[in-house]
């Protein structure tokens, strides 16, 4: 906005202006920003008695691909001048020289001076001295300055310049760098706002993780005037940080509201040690931690098939009935894309003599802790305590029934491996 004294010196043409913004097809009327000058002008005009010629223009901002209205209207107050032609000139990124490109005569049929471009449509009204143009499917190359010229007889020409700004909303994305467990700082995730005009700002909301994370932001500027903003989030990939949510926030003049992309930090790791858990007297579950979650496969040493009295569902193994067919060492494999670990379950169904006390004896082992696993035999009544004391070995049989030959069988098994 110029000062009043500057405006006075200008052609009357420019005295009345309003800004106009066309964003996402929505027209926002701007404010008259020269109100104080207009009062002064009115006084001047009354004094001089001159014709009051005014061209209404404005400045236009449009999102790439949308339709822009280039407003232009001549106000002829108390004038005998005749309008003979409306001419449009443009100076754009594509063609930086100011060239005539459309003329409109009393026939109202627009003529293209050079190449025809059907994206331009004359939507004004010649008799109304309205030169308004519409430009659809606006591209970056259209950005520039458009001049609307009224040729009057005998007065000459009156014109106004309409700047056209083209914005390009960014393409936004977050990309997981798939960090695996470790103790050194690594890249967790990048958030990208690509091809934005004007450049987009990208920031992270990290909540409680604030001081555990570090961010960097880079801008890549392209020849066509767009910019790609890439913001990276770094941290130490610990188990504690796994599963925390952060947010990438993107803001730009090209988008009306901020865009928020939530992201859950994932630290990937192979299955940790595999433990056996007794769910009930007849069911066992293979327990581990892994990211992504582990898949479980049960097998039995020395046998290609599991016995028919065993039902397997994911991590769970269920014994349907107690027969001596069950006897043996079972293995549970926990695996994901980062690795695999094994857990073992030793099952022994005691002899008929013992079956009154219904004897199922399970030895559950994690491969990791075989060396450390201590034997733990308890009477069935103490099963729960046994479970708490050692997740590795469970006994569901009285020591009298089971202990000697189970021990031997187990050791045989372990020695053969
Ligand atoms: C000029 O024409 C356009 C398109 O028809 C219209 O929207 C606008 O209101 C007109 N301008 C004036 C000042 O009458
Ligand atoms: C701008 O240039 C970049 C790099 O050449 C390109 O990827 C992008 O699509 C262009 N954007 C527009 C709106 O033309």
Q: Would you kindly provide a written description of the structure presented here, covering whatever features stand out?
A:
This protein has 417 residues and is mainly beta. It has three domains: 164 residues, Immunoglobulin-like (Sandwich); 94 residues, Sandwich (Immunoglobulin-like), CATH 2.60.40; 142 residues, Immunoglobulins (Immunoglobulin-like). It is built from four helices and 28 strands. Strand 24 and strand 25 form a beta hairpin. The radius of gyration is 40 Å and the shape is rod-shaped. The N terminus is likely disordered. The structure holds 2-acetamido-2-deoxy-beta-D-glucopyranose (2 copies). The site of one 2-acetamido-2-deoxy-beta-D-glucopyranose has 6 residues, from loops.
Explain briefly what this protein structure is.
Its main location: membrane. By secondary structure, this protein is mainly β.
